[in-house]
Amino acid sequence: MHNDTLVEIADVAFKYGDRPVLKGINLTARRGQVIAIMGSSGCGKTTLLRLIGGQIKPSQGTVRVAGESVGDLDQAGLYRLRRKMGMLFQFGALFTDISVFDNVAYQLREHTDLPEDAIRDLVLLKLHAVGLRGAAQMMPSELSGGMARRVALARAIALDPQLVMYDEPFAGLDPISLGITGNLIRRLTDTLGLTSLVVTHDVQESLKIVDYVYFVSEGVIVAQGTADEIRNSDLPYVHQFVHGESDGPVPFHYPAAAYADDLRLGGQRA
Amino acid sequence: MLTICGWEASVLKQAIENLGNRTIEGVWRIGYATRFVLAILLHSGTAFRRFGLTIREIYFSGVLSLIIILVSGLFVGMVLGLQGYETLQTYGSESALGVLVAMSLVRELGPVVAALLFASRAGSAITAEIGLMKATEQLSAMEMMAVDPMARVVAPRFWAGVISMPLLAALFSAMGILGGYLVGVQLIGVDEGSFWSQMQSAVDFEQDILNGVIKSVVFGIAITAIALFEGYDAPPTAEGVSGATTRTVVMSSLAVLALDFVLTAFMFRGLN
């Protein structure tokens, strides 16, 4: 393990019941890097984040974050480790009954004994970093999707974590919000010295900001490399994904019985 | 094809399998719910250490239920006054109207009707809120922020329900007695002195009022535990949350009525 490695996943497998989701994943993230985990919907990307966050335990292999094996920690140990992590959920997951300010202040109030004046300064600092200091008193229901995502990002970095995980940060955003979110991820990673793990299937936006990419398909890593290596890859799966081709190794049609049989054409081929 | 008593064997086998699966699922769910309630008790420290959290929930569960409880109590008391007078005057004992109204409310109607209203008003709201928090990943977000949702969200709501329920039942009974007084004394003309004095001498603090309070505490525990469990266990979809909300109202209403029978059998056995 490199001494600036923050996340190390070694030979990890995971099953939901009898259905294998991940089969022998190896992944490393170093401090200061933006790492993208890409793959089509349902390939196990979010499951990987949940394993790193300790919400589920691997059925095989180890997940180490900041030197600690996540699967072996008890609840107190896990909660201690999670204070070093931030997570941006797909739709923000803001607490809808409290204001933007209180959302960002939430962890500071829960985990520190800071006076309210200091909390106020810190919250405004974090909101300023995502460009929403002026929205501090708004309620989550008053925010657009992009704004909610940025508030959630401010909340995720409230305790200055070492690792921030992003679950589909670009999903459903307009082009301006898309650019803002991408730049924020890069800028915050560089400024705060974080490690960012971005789960996404937005190739073009993420390739602009990432240092390294892992491609996951059917529970295994099928390709990895820098943004340029991925752009120029001639692996059929990566090529199809990066260029958004509708057919290829990932077929357009979901597996089904023969079309002619489904249409009951009795021996005639469609 | 094999038939048993006119039924095809395969159909019978399927029916028995279904029954078995549903029974196992039911028992499993009861065990899961019991563990959930034990987890609430184990995580209750925060609800008392940071009592502000519980007070906030008392406002949402209790204070916001006041209107429906007070208005219903008044009407139930007024009906009791009318019906009671009709019956009592047949035997020339209309002066005992105060006793009838107070006993009915304090022993039974106060705790039971207030609990049914609480289940519909606050229980359903708790389930919907927790279910939606789960569906919108707010509970997961809390866990990822190293904040335990059992301690921070569930336990304060549980204790708020347990504290609110007896207070609401007492207010329901008080409004009911006022309603009975308005109809019996002010409208019909029953003697005011005998209305209050007979009530005062007949209603026993321990046997009637305290037992009523115990009932409403038990109902509060049952309703809030069911509401929280259903919300926490709801599938994170629109149908999941709506189904859980319906189950809360149905299950907690049935639980209140069943528990009322059991408690009444223990409390008032052999009393006058």
* Order of H and E elements of chain B: EEHHHHHHHHHH
Alpha-beta content class of chain B: mainly alpha
Compute the CA-based radius of gyration of chain A.
Answer: 21 Å
Q: In CATH terms, what is the architecture of chain A?
A: 3-Layer(aba) Sandwich
Please report the distance between the alpha carbons of the first and last residues of chain B: 64 Å
Question: How many helical stretches of chain B?
Answer: 10
Radius of gyration of chain B using CA atoms only:
23 Å
Helical proportion of chain B, percent range: over 70%
CATH topology of chain A: Rossmann fold
Oligomer: heterodimer
What's the count of strands of chain B? Answer: 2
- The tally of domains of chain B stands at 1
How many beta-strand elements of chain A? 10
What structural category arises from helix and sheet content of chain A? alpha/beta
SSE order of chain A: EEEHEEHEHHHEHEHEEHHH
Unreliable stretches of chain B (pLDDT < 50, length at least 5) are none
Largest interface: A-B, 23 and 12 residues
Quick one: overall form of chain B? globular
Q: Roughly how many Å apart are the termini of chain A?
A: 56 Å
Mean pLDDT of chain A: 86
